[in-house]
Amino acid sequence: MEPSTPSGPVDGWDRTSPPGPAGPEPEWPPGPPLGVENVVTLVVFAIIFALGALGNGLVIAVLARRRPGSARSPTNVFILNLSVADLAYLLFCVPFQATVYALPSWVLGSFLCKFTHYLFTVSMLVSIFTLSAMAVDRYVAIVHARRSPVLRVARNALRGVGLIWALALILAAPVAQNQRLVYSALGNLTFCWELWAEPGHKRLYVVATFVLGYLLPLLIICCCYAKVLNHLHKKLKNMSKKSEASKKKTAQTVLVVVVVFGISWLPHHVIHLWAEFGVFPLTPASFLFRITAHCLAYSNSSVNPIIYAFLSENFRQAYRQVFRCQLGSPTPLREAKDNRSRQDTPPSTNCTHV
Questions:
Q1: What is the span of the domain harbouring residue 302?
Q2: Are 282 and 259 spatial neighbours (Cβ–Cβ below 8 Å)?
Q3: What GO molecular function terms would the record report (predicted)?
């Protein structure tokens, strides 16, 4: 679900944005050729696409490599699900949405008009629901360590993933239902707009999406991590240094992913709520804000693999192992003795504590 309008930047000279949920067709003046802002945005989109496709592809390759018969950890299941959702979004949404900034008219037809915006919302919901599940998983693993072997099994994680996708697909359905092509006689242009028969229903949906797809999950995540940090603070003296470092590193990594998600998607929701319950200004400044919101939302699908690489030594080792396998060279022995036992362990199990 695109912020404020279903396609195109919001500014005084862009012709892809309706004046309101049920307003008349605007009489847009002829717009100028492709501007500098649009070119810069397309370049940023290209960088996001390249980094995200490579990074998420690597994460999927790392987590897909496991010894037959070995159990997949719940953490890995959730990370794999997050990467699959992000990669699907990058492949099927970003290239098509880039045409909004490159062309004055929607040229991709009715199906892609509905599909790209539907998948946009599905990806957003799957990401935040998965991050919520990861926070609960960390809470159970650290605060209820004795019960975690029973609860934290791959089967339960897979059930959670199935529930996440089912909820996301259902909650995003109104976007596909109300996304449609609008034809303008002025300039023979076609627009992909989200038009609702009842503006009140759209406002209700915007609020529901904000609460269920952003605010409530972040509150759940914050509560889980508050309890985790409180528990770690109380139990540090009783933990071995290795166990303490492992649990703190895992919590730190997932927490960074959550913070980045919150920052990335906040402008999206601010613009959408602003457009529905106020008057979104059509100015160059608001256009820049809109572009920034787009880029932040899109970049969230590409930054998670970078976070894993920076914060997780296990992921860095697994990335290198994937590249060595692709090049056909053997994996060198670990220099440290305490790492030799990991040599025969598949990357997916190494990444249990991301």
A1: 36-103+124-163+198-350
A2: no
A3: galanin receptor activity; peptide hormone binding
Q: What are phi and psi of 334, to 5 degrees?
A: -70, 145
- Partners of 180 in the β-ladder: 193
Q: What is the DSSP letter of 341?
A: G
pTM for the full predicted model = 0.75
* Closest to 253 in 3D by CA, of 264, 245, 263: 245
Give the DSSP H/E element, type plus range, for residue 275. Answer: helix 241-277
> Is the residue at 322 inside a domain?
yes
Pick from 53, 120, 42: nearest CA to 91? 53
User: pLDDT digits over 46-66, tens only?
Assistant: 999 999 998 888 888 888 776
Q: Which helix (H) or strand (E) holds 181?
A: strand 179-184
> Does residue 262 lie within any of the structural domains?
yes
The CA distance from 102 to 120, in Å, is: 19
